[in-house]
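seq:
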Amino acid sequence: MHLAVVLVSPARAENIGAAARAMKTMGFTDLRIVDSVAHLEEGARRVAHGAGDVLDNITTYTTLADALADVQFTVATTARSRAKFHYYATPEELVPLLREKSEWLQTGALVFGREDSGLTNDELALADILTGVPMVADYPSLNLGQAVMVYCYQLATLIQNGAEPIAARDDNPLHALRMRAHALLDQLGVADDIKMADWLDQRIGVLGQRDTAMLHRLLHDIEKNSPT
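struct:
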């Protein structure tokens, strides 16, 4: 699986440089920046120290949704506890999860939020899985460069082991499943059950290939036999 690192509205050039250096050290090359030009400042290249090629190949986007347009599986990082969202994986737990996904999905992204406020609820809702770094401190905090290093170090084996390439596919089975599930809620007249909709969104991200295929089959049968 090709893994991109996405930084949303980073404010400090030095943090971008540190992120690029962490990526280069661990073998990652695809850095995407949303709503920021801080990477153009001198501080980014000074701190990157040998990772200038990662900075040179940055792609920029207006919104997170644009940055994820070609991504089939999205992991979003957050340090805040929200009633609506739940952690499903620590960095360590992401490894087997993404290894399974890499057997049938080609592209993934690891999304990091703003230095001061992280990701918004709407941005977190774009993710398939949420993750956070367990910390002991009373006021836990990692700066952006440290956070990128933690995840790149943990996930490096996924790109260094040289997994067999999988056949290219234009569809996104998890996204399609999510859309079909929401359409069924609409059809049943329960789309306003926010708790149910949120549960679906959160659980679909942890499904393996076989479970995803079986649920597609079930929804197909329901759609085929439902009155129009």
